[in-house]
Amino acid sequence: MKYAVIKAAGAQYWVTEGNELDIFQIEGKEGDKIEFSEVLLYEDGDQIIVGQPLVKDAAVKAIIVKNFRGEKIRV
Fold first, then answer.
1. Within a 13 Å sphere around the CA of 67, how many CA atoms are in the beta-carbon half?
2. Interval 24-65: pLDDT, tens
3. Which of 5, 10, 13, 8 has the alpha carbon at shortest distance from 28?
């Protein structure tokens, strides 16, 4: 199984192909293609590549499925 650890919006995410994530503060509209270039770790089934701090020439491509806002919290 291929997977990667990426950094997006100040947090780290473990991602695989076909995986859907809720990531805060991503600019774009539904259907836009985006690329995460901050890849911290990559595993391709045979080997694990750990970045120091980033994996060189690695990127994760994604599509924005939905933009939404969470429920407003009043304190």
1. 8
2. 888 889 999 999 999 999 998 889 999 999 999 999 999 999
3. 8
Burial grade of 70 (CB within 10 A; 0-12, 13-18, 19 or more): exposed
In DSSP terms, 11 is beta-bridged to: 8
64: closest CA among 36, 28, 39, 35?
28
Tokens of 6: 């990426």
As a whole number of angstroms, the distance between CA 57 and CA 3 comes to: 16
Query: What pTM did the predictor assign?
Result: 0.81
State whether residue 26 is helix, strand or coil: coil
55, amino acid identity = V
